[in-house]
Design a protein that fits this description.
CATH superfamily: Ferritin, core subunit, four-helix bundle
Helix content: over 70%
Oligomer: single chain
CATH topology: Ferritin
Low-confidence stretches: none
CATH class: Mainly Alpha
Number of helices: 6
Shape: elongated
Mean pLDDT: 88
Bound molecules: fe (ii) ion
């Protein structure tokens, strides 16, 4: 056997092993043997993301309706846009849980305690903007931690979270701009 044949045959046997392994673990779905993360842990962490995003959907949606009620149409539109993006984040995390063999937890029981952010209280326009800004700052920190945790262990989950993080940073900037526009001073100057 010359060198090329040796490499080819070992490559082929590798492919065969890979295929066999893939066939054996069909029931595992997207989780392959080379997955370096802890599947149960990943699902647990993503359940918290689902809960957090769900609470963000509910808060922004409540604020969008409340802001419209006080005739702040442009702020209401911004809240509504964010509510829609948070819903997309929630679905991304839920679908990743499904890919990993779990079932996304949408149970309203205990939702608030599974979430990293709070539902909020409504209030006047400035209070609502502040509640959202605080929530965005919390998720930014939380997702940065998760991204560092997943690192090379689970690049798919990490990349998904990086996309979400970029949106949250934009949201925080939007809320900050709204606060300056409606209160006249930046959040951190208080
Ligand atoms: Fe989000
Ligand atoms: Fe957000």
């Amino acid at each position: 056997m010359n060198e090329t044949t040796k490499i080819e045959s070992s490559f082929l046997s590798d492919v065969k092993t890979l295929r066999e392994r893939a066939r054996q673990s069909l029931t595992d779905g997207a989780v392959v043997a080379t997955y370096q993360g802890d599947v149960a842990k990943t699902i647990e962490l993503l359940q918290a993301v689902v809960a957090t995003e769900l609470v963000c959907v509910l808060r922004y949606q409540m604020h969008a309706i409340a802001a419209e009620g006080i005739h702040s149409e442009s702020v209401a539109a911004e809240f509504q846009e964010h509510a829609d993006v948070e819903r997309k984040h929630m679905l991304d995390a839920a679908n990743r849980i499904d890919q990993l063999g779990g079932v996304p937890n949408f149970n309203p029981d205990g939702l608030a305690s599974r979430s990293a952010t709070e539902y909020g209280e409504g209030g006047n326009l400035v209070e609502m903007i502040k509640q959202n800004l605080i929530a965005e700052r919390i998720v930014i920190e939380h997702y940065q931690e998760l991204i560092r945790y997943f690192g090379d262990k689970d690049p798919t989950t990490r990349i998904m979270l990086e996309g979400i993080l970029a949106d949250e940073e934009e949201h925080a900037a939007d809320m900050h701009d709204l606060l300056v526009a409606h209160q006249g001073k930046p959040f951190l100057e208080e």
